[in-house]
Specification:
The chain has helices at 12-23, 40-54, 66-70, 99-114, 136-149, 167-176, 199-211; strands spanning 3-7, 27-34, 58-63, 118-120, 157-159. The protein has 223 residues and is of the alpha/beta class. It has one domain: HUPs (Rossmann fold), CATH 3.40.50.620. Strands 3-2-1-4-5 form a five-stranded parallel β-sheet, with helices on both faces. It is globular. It starts with a strand and ends in a 12-residue tail after the last helix.
Length: 223
């Protein structure tokens, strides 16, 4: 069976990408990164539950403590507050410098070792928080770099099935593919009940509202 490496945080987007990969006939190799993000414990629980639901046997848990050492992001530096006042223009303080570039590089190494022909990543360009490493042109550049930096016989495509979707479209797609949305986690700062006011919660809640679907996870408040 053909294989695909899926970068799986446990969030709605990456989980939907995983279900799309499965629907295309791929055996999934799931990769989860602990980069010392605030909600890693909850994200890890989501990752394990989703892998169990998907029947994933091949799992990689990658420890990346240096992100906290670098800092510069509210997700990895406790001295920087997670913004809760609503989405603002520009690149927010929740951006983790070059995170997806590093994730894709490691995923490429796993894919080459596993003989996988694709990497699935749930980046979203049009309705994201303004992260530069979620852009389609960046992903295309990474695919070219991976092609140049791996064996001549290695061919790895980076699949971004959600890149041009808005959040309400992702919710609808998740429902279409039977994604267990109740297992996913998106909040940037809380691990029991989602805060409802961070950028990620706001985008998720807006998507569910526009899609006309009830978000099944618990919230402290709904923005």
């Amino acid at each position: 069976m053909k294989k695909a490496v899926v970068i799986l945080s446990g969030g709605m987007d990456s989980t939907t990408a995983a279900y799309i990969a499965k629907s295309r006939g791929y055996e999934i190799v799931a990769v989860h990164f602990d980069y010392r993000q605030r909600t890693e414990s909850r994200e890890r629980r989501a990752f394990e539950a989703i892998c169990e639901r998907l029947g994933v046997a091949g799992k990689y848990l990658i420890d990346l403590p240096f992100f906290a050492r670098i800092g510069a992001s509210a997700l990895t530096d406790s001295s920087i507050e997670v913004p809760t006042g609503g989405l603002e223009p520009g690149v927010p303080v929740t951006y983790v410098p070059f995170r997806n570039g590093i994730f894709l590089s490691i995923a490429a190494a796993v894919a080459e070792k596993e003989g996988a022909e694709a990497i699935f990543i749930g980046v979203v360009e049009e309705d994201s928080s303004g992260y530069p490493d979620c852009r389609e042109d960046f992903i295309a550049a990474m695919e070219r770099a991976i092609d140049q930096g791996t064996k001549e016989s290695t061919r790895i495509a980076i699949e971004t099935p959600l890149v041009h979707l808005k959040k309400e479209d992702i919710v609808a797609t998740a429902v279409e593919y039977g994604v267990p949305l109740e297992l996913t986690w998106s909040c940037y700062q809380e691990e029991e009940a989602a805060c409802g006011v961070c950028d990620s919660c706001r985008l998720r809640l807006k998507g569910f509202e526009k899609a006309g679907v009830q978000d099944p996870i618990p919230y402290k408040e709904r923005s």
